[in-house]
Structure formats: C-alpha cells, structure tokens
Design a protein that fits this description.
The chain is α+β, with helices and mostly antiparallel strands. The protein folds into 2 domains: 128 residues, Nuclear Transport Factor 2, Chain: A; 134 residues, Nucleoside Triphosphate Pyrophosphohydrolase (Alpha-Beta Complex). The strands form 3 sheets. Strands 1, 2, 3, 4, 5, 6 and 7 form a 7-stranded mixed sheet that branches. A 4-stranded mixed sheet has the order 11-8-13-12, sandwiched between helices. The longest helix is centred in the last third of the chain and has 15 residues. The protein is elongated, with a radius of gyration of 20 Å.
C-alpha cells in the first residue's frame, strides 16, 4: 500500500518531469479532481478524463522555474482530520506558448484509496512575479480568514439554508479556509453584541446581497479541524437557520468568490459537504411539514 505522503511527492516529481504516463499511474481508476488545472476550475471524474486534462496542461504550459521546473514543493504533511489524507503546499512557475510567464501559489489535498489518488483538490492564487521565488521555503501563504485560524476558544458560526418556494437553495463558493474554493451554505461568525438571528441576516446580506427572513434553527453542531501537529486550526460551533428570501439581488459579496441559486435536486455537481447536504435535506423536510 503506497504511503500518502510518498504518493504526493511522486505526483509533483512526475509533473516536473512532464511525464503524463507517470502521472496517470498515480490516480485511482475512479478518481475525482477538483480545481487542479490552470485554466479550468471544474470537477473531473475518471482516470481517462483526468489523464487527458494533464496531457493538455503539459502541452499548453512549460515549466518556467530553474531547469524547467514547474512546481517547488514547500511542505508535505499528513492530515488526521479535514478534507484529505495529505496536504502539499507549493509554488509554481509556468510559461504559455506565447512566452508569457505565470506564477501561482497554493496547496493541494490528496485522498489515497487502494494505493492510488482517489480525490485531488487544489486551491491556488495568481502571484506577481516578485512574489514567486524559485524556492517555496515554508510553503504558500495561508488562505484562511486571519481572525478565525488557530483560535484561543471556539468560534460561534451562523449559517443559512435559504430556500425558495421553487425548492431552490442558495450556495456560495468560499474564499477562505476552511473549505476555500468549495461550495457551501452562506454564513459566517457572530459578532459581539449581536443576536444569532441578527448575525445570520447580516452574513447573508454581506455574502449574497439578499435580505432574508430568519426562521427556526435547523441544526446545531461543531466542527474541529487540526493541523499536522495536532494543534487546533479551526473550532466552530455552528448554528444553521432556515431562511426565506424577501428582497435584494443575488450577487457575490464579502468572504465569497461566487454565489448561485440551485434546485435542491441538482446540488450534487457542486460537491458540498455531506453535513451541508444533511442540513439542507432537514430544512426541506421542515418546510414540507409546514414549518414557516
């Protein structure tokens, strides 16, 4: 059985050698990749599709680092909790067919199953050339919200399941960790002197542009994520409310990079967490029972 950390290192070594065959051998036949290609922020399933994606990527971009390297890996760490088994922090330097250089930094999560990469997800940002040295050093900058990472005590979070009469739900794409680059329910943290309902309405307005009526509590739960040393990186106590849109125009606001309205029956392609799916289903059942 391949070690997840060794497998992650082998993956970036194959990328730096532009060896698409070697890359493909590291993936599980039923693999899923999310946000891994430079110009494609989508989700792709299956080894054939993923191999084709990397083949195209390696043709369109060459390494712009020393000796033609693409990636400089900073830290390779195991994750006991959270999205995946292994995390790799990296910087990369690429050059397109026109000679234009691109510099990026970010991290990738890998989930290994049966000795192969079953899930692969990346979060990346574009860097000016001056911010992209050839050596990654301690790794890429954190994309976590600065006031919520490594807290001294649990953080109270509020969330909203915004349902329309047409059984549609509002989703936002997170800008910061946890869940950076992933779709989730709107929400944030409670401010001092603010009621739970008032904080929920404020966060919804800030992130989505919508004014909502905040209804009953759907779910209360906690989420604790640690780093590779066992130190608590995030600790949230989350309260999710059933909300109804009243006015406003749907638009991405603070802390999110995108927002959308999705039929509940069509959520699967957005790959929200299992917990978020359960909360949405519970809210739908509450509405079906006549909860206002």
């Amino acid at each position: 059985m391949a070690d997840a950390l060794d497998l992650a290192r082998a993956f970036f070594d194959a990328l730096n050698r532009a060896d698409v065959d070697a890359i493909a051998t590291l993936y599980h036949p039923a693999c899923v990749v999310e946000h891994v290609f430079v110009d494609d922020d989508g989700v792709h399933e299956g080894l054939e599709r993923v191999r084709a994606g990397w083949a195209d990527e390696l043709v369109r971009y060459t390494g712009a680092g020393p000796a033609g390297r693409r990636f400089d890996v900073g830290r390779v760490s195991g994750l006991e909790t959270g999205w995946g088994w292994a995390r790799v922090d990296w910087r990369c330097a690429l050059r397109d067919a026109g000679g234009q250089a691109r510099h990026r930094s970010g991290y990738s999560h890998f989930w290994v199953e049966d000795g192969r990469i079953r899930r692969h997800r990346s979060v990346a940002r574009e860097d000016p050339p001056a911010e992209a040295p050839s050596n990654a050093g301690a790794g890429a900058r954190s994309t976590a919200h600065p006031s919520r990472e490594f807290p001294s005590k649990p953080v109270i979070g509020i969330g909203a399941v915004i349902l329309t009469d047409a059984r549609e739900v509002v989703l936002v794409k997170r800008r910061y960790e946890p869940l950076a680059g992933q779709w989730s329910l709107p929400g944030g943290t409670l401010e001092l002197g603010e009621t739970l309902e008032g904080g929920t309405a404020r966060e919804v307005r800030e992130e989505t542009g919508l004014v909502v009526d905040v209804g009953p509590v759907v779910e209360v739960f906690d989420r604790i994520l640690t780093d590779e040393t066992g130190r608590v990186r995030f600790h949230y106590v989350l309260v999710d409310y059933l909300c109804r849109p009243r006015e406003g125009r749907l638009q991405a606001g603070t802390d999110v990079s995108d927002v959308t309205l999705v039929p509940v029956a069509e959520i699967a392609p957005y790959r929200v967490t299992e917990k978020a799916l359960a909360v949405i289903e519970k809210a739908v059942q509450m509405v079906a029972r006549g909860t206002p």
